[in-house]
Amino acid sequence: MTISPQAFTFVRELVRAESAIVLETGKEYLVESRLVPLARAAGHPDVDAYVADLSKRRTPAAMKQVVEALTTNETSWFRDSDPFTALRQNVFPALAKTRSNRTLRIWAGACSSGQEPYSIIMTALDTPELAGWKIELVATDLSEEMLTRSRKGEYSQLEVNRGLPATTLVRHFERSGLNWRINQSIRDRVEFRSLNLTRPFPPMGRFDIVFLRNVLIYFDLPTKRDVLKRVRQVMAPDGHLFLGAAEMTMGVDDAWERVPAGRSSVYRIREAITVRGSTCVH
Amino acid sequence: MRALIVDDSRAMRRIVGRILEGVGFEVLEAGDGQEALGVLEGLDGPPELACVDWNMPVMDGFTFITEVRKRSEWRSITLMMVTTESEMDQIVRALAAGAHEYLIKPFTGEAMLEKLDLLGLLPTSTGV
To answer: What whole-number distance in Å separates Cα of residue B65 and Cα of residue B93?
Structure first.
C-alpha cells in the first residue's frame, strides 16, 4: 500500500520545518520506504497508522527520528574525515618511501555511489609526496546501478554539500545543469568494476591500500572471516587496510594487527603471517 | 563558543540556530549584513563563527564578509556562507572575499555539522 496524502503532507511539513528540505510530490515512495522500519519498530501495521499516531502525540524524539530517516541518505565525501587525513599524512608518505616504481595500487571494495574512490584520488592529489606518481584505483561494488552512477560522477546539490570542502568543489567539479560533475581528469583515474565480496575475487593484482569501510558489518562472522582472509591474499605484505570506525579484525581474523595512523587506525598483516603466506604459495 | 547567524529568514535562523546550539554554540542573530556589523561592534570579543546568507535587504552577505575582512580585530571569525546561491563563480567570489566555507541551501543538519568539522569547530571533530 502507498502512503496517504494526509500522512505525506504531515511528514513533508515536518521535514521542511526541521531541515529546510522540501520533499516534492512524487517522493511518497521515499517517505514510505524510509518510514516502514520506524512504523514496524513502533508496533504499527503500516506507515499511515504510524504517522497518524505521531501527528497526535508529537513526541520530539519520534519526530526527530522521522526527519533523520528522510535526510541522512547521502554518502559523505571524505567520510569520517580522519581516515583521509591519515591517508595524506601517514599512509601515503610511508608508502612513497618504499615504492621505487612510483606507482600505488588501491582498491575501494564497496564504492557505493563513488564518493569514496573519488575522495581517495583527491587526497592523493593533495599529497606532495605523491606528485608525479601513478595511482591505480580499482573501485568495486555489487550494484550495477551504483557503478553506473559512480562512473558518471554526477552529484546533486545535497550530495556535494556533504563533507566536501568548498575549495575542493571549486577545484575538482563543474556544473552540470542543477547537478555537479566531478572533473574528467579525476573520473579517468578510477576503474569501476562489478564485484561480489562474498565470492572469490577475480584477478585484480596486488594492492598497497584497501578501503573496505562499513561493509563487513552487513556480513555474518564466517563471511567476515572469509572476506578478510581473501583481502590478505590480494594485499602487498606491507599494505594498509582501512575499515569502518565500528569494524575491527580482532576475534574475526587475527592475522591482522591494528596500527594507529594519525587519529585513525589502519590494519596491517602481521609479519609472521606474511612469511607463512609466502611459504604456502611456493 | 559563539556563532552569529546572519539571515533575513527567521525560520532559517531558527533551523541553523538549533543545529549550532546542539553542538554547544551560543547563538546570536541578525537579519541583514548591516545589523550584523552592529552586533559585532557591540560584542566584547568576536564570535568564533558567522553563518551568512547571500541575499538580504539593506546589506547582502557578500558585502558583509568583505566588510568583516577589512577589520583586523575580526580576523579570527570563521565565515561560512549559507545560501541558495549555487553558481560556481559565486562560490569562487565568496572564497576569494574571505569566506572559509560555503554551504548551499537546502542542507541537512549532518551537512552543516560536517562543514563545522572541516573548519575544526566541532567539540569532537569525528562525531558526525
So the answer is: 11
**Starting from the edge strand earliest in sequence, which strands make up the sheet with A256-261, in order?**
A190-194, A134-141, A103-108, A207-212, A235-243, A264-269, A256-261
Which domains does chain A carry? 5-71 (1.10.155.10), 82-281 (3.40.50.150)
B67-117 tens-digit pLDDT: 999 999 999 999 999 999 999 999 999 999 999 999 999 898 889 999 999
| Number of Cβ atoms within 10 Å of the Cβ of B34 | 17
Residue (of B45, B22, B46) closest to B116 by Cα position: B22
Kindly determine whether residue B95 and residue A166, on different chains, have CB atoms separated by under 8 Å. yes
Which among B102, B108, B118 is the nearest to A19, CB-wise? Answer: B108
CA A120 – CA A108 distance, rounded (Å): 9
Write the single-letter amino acid at B31.
G
CA distance B105 to chain A (A): 8
Chain B residues whose beta carbon lies within 8 Å of the beta carbon of residue A166: 91, 94-95, 99, 101-102
User: Domains in chain B, please, with CATH?
Assistant: 2-118 (3.40.50.2300)
- Rounded Cα gap, residues A13 and A20, in angstroms: 10
Q: What is the pLDDT of residues B22-60, one digit of tens each?
A: 999 999 999 999 999 999 999 999 999 999 999 999 999
Residue of A nearest to B92 (CA): A170
What sign does the dihedral B97-B102-B106-B108 (CA atoms) show?
A: negative
Q: Closest Cα partner for A107 from A211, A228, A215?
A: A211
Angstrom distances, CA of residue B16 to CA of A136, A238, B53: 41, 46, 11
Cα A237 → chain centroid: 25
